[in-house]
């Protein structure tokens, strides 16, 4: 019988780093601002070039329109990412700045100016702008307009959780960006694996905001320290290639993973204890009413 050859570097091989790579793959995220949004940077560039021969007034209108459309494309990218983060969380505040709706309006203004700099005339330019705004809204939608709340938890507590989680996600993003510039795939995987542990704690706090007090130091002080250590290591490594510093940084990630895992398990265990208490109280009440329970 034929036997498939396999080795450490063969496709599908499981080496010592396989669990780490699997954790990193689970944590890897698709950018919400996909190709469709990125393509919107092309029209302003084309408009700016086409306006060069349109005379002084046409050139000014074309350049302003190109700037409006470029700003709209930039706002749309950030609006899509904010919407994805909003949809992912069980409790979240609506975006403070309606980026997608601003992008739709700026796109309409840019297209209207582009039409006016051509031969469309004022009325035609306005109609083009209205049509572009409507098509932009139809393609990308509008921003979330309401806060997401969890029933049974007061708004003040949920707002506190939202602020802490926003801060924690900022630290995680800065940490990943610092290590990504080094081009070290192993370190990228280590950071992604740690972020998976941190986000498990974030999910536990989102599902039960009452756990914020027990997790706040981890999501604030510890993540800020991890961010600072990552930035300093990213500055040191390209200059010195200090293997001791590399080993210490990897050990720091291991210690952080262990600490976050243990704390998250403690949070979940407290939830289980609370559930057991509620069930025992209910059984006692049923027994008082003469209902037999096991």
Task: Give a description of the structure.
- The protein is mainly alpha-helical and 294 residues long.
- The protein folds into two domains: 34-140, no CATH class; 155-288.
- It is 75% helix and 0% strand.
- It has helices at residues 18-27, 35-38, 42-50, 55-88, 99-117, 121-140, 155-180, 185-207, 212-240, 243-288.
- Helix 1 crosses helix 8 (185-207) and helix 5 packs antiparallel against helix 6.
- The relative contact order is 0.08.
Topology:
Layout (H helix, E strand, L loop, with lengths): L17 H10 L7 H4 L3 H9 L4 H34 L10 H19 L3 H20 L14 H26 L4 H23 L4 H29 L2 H46 L6
What labels would you give this structure?
single chain; 294 residues; mainly alpha; 2 domains; 10 helices; 75% helix; transmembrane helix; ChloroindolylP_hydrolase; membrane; transmembrane; 5-bromo-4-chloroindolyl phosphate hydrolysis protein
Radius of gyration from CA coordinates: 26 Å
Percent in strands: under 5%
Largest sheet: none
- The rounded distance between the terminal residues' Cα atoms is 56 Å
Low-confidence stretches: 1-16
Order of helices and strands: HHHHHHHHHH
Q: Average pLDDT value?
A: 79
What's the number of helices? 10
Silhouette: flat
Classify the secondary structure makeup into a structural class.
mainly alpha
What's the total number of strands? 0
Question: Into how many domains do the coordinates divide?
Answer: 2
What is the helix content?
Answer: over 70%
